[in-house]
């Protein structure tokens, strides 16, 4: 049965189903997936699409997440467009092969639903599962809502295939993955124009003279890291280009850094993921009371857009970093990254780090509103403080 045609359709979708729609539109050739809460609805929706004839990818369900990533690497290395998805313990099980994927320069797109890792056992939104993979050589994007997730999936394929790097997109469990919002579905023709099939210069095949994972000497291995570094340096501009083209086609921007009521902000909230929506509500309330607050949304976390962050924070008096993660011994990951980025800069903002919503705790807008008034007379701490 053929799927019904649609163009610029608006539907009520939860975040995971929005991801599945983005994958369907992007048209991967191979999709190895293993189910895990709360990612499973992505797989279920893709199976539904495939059963109706609307999704033509080779959909594989191997025995583990480790095997799913192994299959993704093998397929991508031969030139296939590849998608996979996971969450929490599944992502941690993949860890060994995440290094392999980036070292092999396979442009896999993976969606990770941010969830608390064990122990103790939990299913709640927390970004430490993906942030603990930040040194594996994967590009990392963080989305705020279902529409952002759909748009990010489509853009991720463009970035991955332009750079020969794997891309991981992340959204918060339940707050985004299972929350229903209106989502605009672009036409298949618009996505095809945005994601043209192009010959890859790094892939296996007859006459390529390439191998995958062969032992090499020290100098050759060193060269692979240098090549990886050069590719990472191009990601930010490719992400900007993808956002600009996408905005022309859809009217929606998805830049590496995004801003809300920012032009004259004296107090800036800096965060990633669904916390951005709460911050927007708090900012509107603060503006009503006469406090010039704004939002700096970090959408591209790896590679971190260092210069753009320095420029964006120049002129702000206070920056409140909200981390839905906890790195033992250092505190909030984004807070520590920004401390490094701003070190040595002239007149940096006073940087206040807070562990906010760790383990999925709800952070009401009223608490952020009160926090903005509290930090004006607070000496910033070296490590992130727990938000009470």
Could you describe the 3D structure shown?
It is a single chain. With 388 residues, the protein is α/β, with parallel strands linked by helices. The protein has two domains: 9-250, Thiamin diphosphate (ThDP)-binding fold, Pyr/PP domains (Rossmann fold), CATH 3.40.50.970; 257-386, 3-Layer(aba) Sandwich (Rossmann fold). It has 13 helices and 15 strands. It has helices at 15-26, 40-51, 65-77, 89-93, 95-103, 128-131, 146-163, 188-194, 218-250, 275-288, 306-313, 333-342, 365-374; strands at 9-14, 30-32, 58-60, 83-86, 109-114, 139-142, 167-172, 180-185, 257-260, 267-271, 293-298, 300-302, 318-323, 350-355, 385-386. It has a six-stranded mixed beta sheet, sandwiched between helices. Helix 12 links the parallel strand 13 (318-323) and strand 14. Helix 1 crosses helix 2, helix 3 packs parallel to helix 5 (95-103) and helix 7 (146-163) packs across helix 9 (218-250). The termini are far apart.
Tally of distinct domains: 2
Low-confidence segments: 1-7
SSE succession: EHEHEHEHHEHEHEEHHEEHEEHEHEHE
Q: Quick one: biggest sheet?
A: 6 strands, mixed
- As a whole number of angstroms, the C-alpha radius of gyration is 21 Å
The backbone outline, from C-alpha atoms, is globular
């Amino acid at each position: 049965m053929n799927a019904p045609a649609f163009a610029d359709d608006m539907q009520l979708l939860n975040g995971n189903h929005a991801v599945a729609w983005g994958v369907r539109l992007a048209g991967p050739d191979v999709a190895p997936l293993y189910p895990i809460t709360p990612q499973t609805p992505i797989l279920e929706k893709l199976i539904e699409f495939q059963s109706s004839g609307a999704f033509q990818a080779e959909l594989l369900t191997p025995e583990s997440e480790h095997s799913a990533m192994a299959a993704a690497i093998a397929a991508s290395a031969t030139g296939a467009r590849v998608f996979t998805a996971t969450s929490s313990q599944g992502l941690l099980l993949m860890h060994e092969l995440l290094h392999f994927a980036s070292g092999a320069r396979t442009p896999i797109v993976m969606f990770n639903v941010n969830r608390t890792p064990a122990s103790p056992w939990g299913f709640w939104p927390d970004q430490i599962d993906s942030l603990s993979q930040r040194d594996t050589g994967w590009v990392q994007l963080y989305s705020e809502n279902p529409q952002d997730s759909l748009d990010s999936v489509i853009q991720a394929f463009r970035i991955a295939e332009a750079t020969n790097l794997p891309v991981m997109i992340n959204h918060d469990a339940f707050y985004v993955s299972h929350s229903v919002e209106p989502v605009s579905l672009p036409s298949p023709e618009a996505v095809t124009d945005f994601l043209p099939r192009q010959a890859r210069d790094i892939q296996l095949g007859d006459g390529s003279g390439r191998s995958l994972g062969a032992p090499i000497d020290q100098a050759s291995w060193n060269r692979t890291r240098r090549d990886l570094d050069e590719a990472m340096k191009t990601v930010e501009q490719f992400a900007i280009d993808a956002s600009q083209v996408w905005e022309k086609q859809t009217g929606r921007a998805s830049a590496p850094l995004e801003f809300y009521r920012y032009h004259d902000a004296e107090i800036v909230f800096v965060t990633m993921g669904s916390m951005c929506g709460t911050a927007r509500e708090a900012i509107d309330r603060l503006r009503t009371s006469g406090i010039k607050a704004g939002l700096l949304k970090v959408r591209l976390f790896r590679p971190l857009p260092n210069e753009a962050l320095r420029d964006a924070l120049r002129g702000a008096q206070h920056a409140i970093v909200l981390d839905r993660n906890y790195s033992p011994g250092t505190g909030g990951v984004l807070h520590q990254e920004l401390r490094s980025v701003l070190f040595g800069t002239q007149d940096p903002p006073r940087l206040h780090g807070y562990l906010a919503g760790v383990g999925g705790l709800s952070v009401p807008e009223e608490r952020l509103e009160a926090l903005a008034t509290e930090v004006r007379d607070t000496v910033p701490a070296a490590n992130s403080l727990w938000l009470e």
